[in-house]
Amino acid sequence: MKSGEEKWKFFFGCDHELPSEEDLKTLKAIIIPGSGHSVYNANVSWIPLMKDFIRSILNEHPHIKLIGGCFGEQITATAMGGRVEKMPYNPVNPKCLGREHVQMSDEFFE
């Protein structure tokens, strides 16, 4: 498969919608994007479900690449036993926001 020929499916983990075992056989990558929730928010029922799902991907489906953006990276880290913390506010050096161009190689999709 060459870049540009990808087929995308969308699942809404926040609605407890995850790929089936059949889907997992054919997926090449899963992207977990940002969220308005914290990975430590105990009142959000789908967060433990997502952590279990991430662990199953890493342990049982090594052919699937896992990509996280912001929240996605944080929930992946905590699912693997890591810890994330809120960045303290620093008025001298505030958070930096920017844009980065990412070029996917065809090997990524193999």
Structure in words:
This protein has a domain at 16-82. Helices cover 27% and strands 7% of the residues. The protein is built from three helices and two strands. Strands 1-2 form a two-stranded parallel ribbon. Helix 2 crosses helix 3. The mean pLDDT is 86. The protein has 110 residues and is an alpha+beta fold. It has helices spanning 21-26, 46-60, 71-79, and strands at residues 29-32, 65-68. The longest helix has 15 residues, at 46-60.
Brief summary:
The chain is of the alpha+beta class and 110 residues long. It has helices spanning 21-26, 46-60, 71-79, and strands at residues 29-32, 65-68. It has a domain at 16-82.
Radius of gyration: 16 Å
Beta-strand percentage? 5-15%
What is the helix content? 25-40%
What structural category characterises the helix and strand content? alpha+beta
- Work out the number of β strands: 2
Number of helices: 3
What's the topology here?
Layout lengths: L20 H6 L2 E4 L13 H15 L4 E4 L2 H9 L31
Helix pairs in contact: 2-3
